[in-house]
Task: structure prediction
Amino acid sequence: MTPTCFGRSAPRYWDASKEQEKNGKDKEAKNDEEAPQQKKKWPSKKFISGKRDPFPGPATLPEAKIKKFARDGQAKKPPRHFVKARAIMDRADALSEMAQKQAARFDMLLLEDAGFLEGDEGEDTCTISQEDIAEAVDISSGAKYFNLKLSQFGPYRPDYDKTGRHLLLGGKRGHVACIDWQSKQLKCEINVMESVNDVKWLHSESMFAVAQKKWLHIYDSKGVELHCIRKFNDVLRMQFLPYHFLLATASATGFLQYLDVSVGKEVEAICTKAGRLDVMCQNPYNAIIHLGHSNGTVTLWSPNQREALVKMLCHRGGVRSVAVDKAGLYMVTSGMDKKLKVYDVRTFKPLTSYFIPAGASCLSLSQRGLLSAAAGDVVQVYRDVWSTPVTKPYMAHRVRGSVWGLHYCPFEDILGVGHGDGFTSMLVPGAGEPNFDGLDSNPYRSVKQRQEWEVKALLEKIQPELISLEPSMLGKVDRATYEQKRKDLVETLGYDPNAAERFVPKRKKKGRSSAGNIEKRKKQVGHIDQREIIKETVAKRMQLEKGRKDQIKKKAANETSALDRFKK
Result:
């Protein structure tokens, strides 16, 4: 029985020697238990099948693939004593090289390739009909060729959305329809009860704009009118800039207007002073709007300037249609003089010119560079119009009624033709881009993915002030010197904001801040700021004085007198 002290148990003292013995026995028992487990461990070297890899390291990449994603050139590194800056640039170069190789590896996984229509020996591809192509291809591709007979409200103007899955049709007599053309499912169908000049999808398939007889109207995918914008009246043609969220409209009154659809405000309204504007297209590379006029000129416009950036005389008659390729390098125009001309947008010079007997009323360029031209009720497709002289069309097809609109479907070998008798979906092999960017425009995205993409696109929206002819100039460094910038700033403001402030003497008491004393203190401090100027002026004076004395000495040495003849 343990003794107690004041009702509590007696304290127990700790014996260190016994505790050490106990811990030692526990460790030995633990090591004995783990000994058999350590024998079962796998060897340190990991092998899949017990053999070494015959090709160690990452797979080699073709040089052509690496050059495809190479940067223009590495930046010039600073001198060696800038250690930190050099280390930052080395890390940036390493990341750039890794991104280049990764892009080349991912490019090798894109197995889809564009294929063109090839006829038998001696057969012309333009003689092959759409029915023959639909029978030769698989069932899913053959189902993409169809005709919609809509003769009551035609002619129609078609438009595909950015993903290429939804089709929008606008009839001249007021019929507007939104279709999922791949599943042939009708989303909405309305009649606006007045004439329709143009239709255009906005940033997604949930909204579209209709240029009606009086004003511009915005509808959702169910046909419900969301907005009626009365500032935009008599609109004839429209173009949507997807990365800027801008809807550009050309009106019959000669105004080019920009509407920011993300906030619903008018960004700019420009009077072109060129009359009725019914020919319009955009450059996908730099978001510049191209307008065709009745005097044969094509003008390029930006919302940042009230005057045209470029004015080109393209035809002897009025311009009927304009189209620009995806890369923004070439522009194709057709005019009343029955000529089709190809221009290099970089130099604004003509490359080739073709004569079309009936004249082309509508033009459209595909993602792979195929040109479609409509003359009356015949649609002709041309291939490589800017690289080699073309003597005959690649494909041809006749529709019912005169053609009113052409539009290629993105990521599909489909050409949508709107005409007086309805709509025709043509099969054009090699027209669409076979591989799409899922982060930018995914044809198979769900509603949730579309909503997330819309939020990201709004966060990454490009401001209208950045639209210019050469967008790559925005990333370049201005190498103007500091002195030049300072001179420009002084000329602009009229004074130097970085100049030192004038000395203001401190107010003193007891009569020491009289006007005379303040002026004396100002003079005492004033010569400090002008010390360098005084030194320069004194040095210049001394140099001038020395030069003057040297000239006097030379003049005295060169002078001769009558007594010099007596000198020996």
Remarks:
- The chain is about 25% helix and 30% strand.
- Confidence is low (pLDDT under 50) at residues 1-16, 33-43.
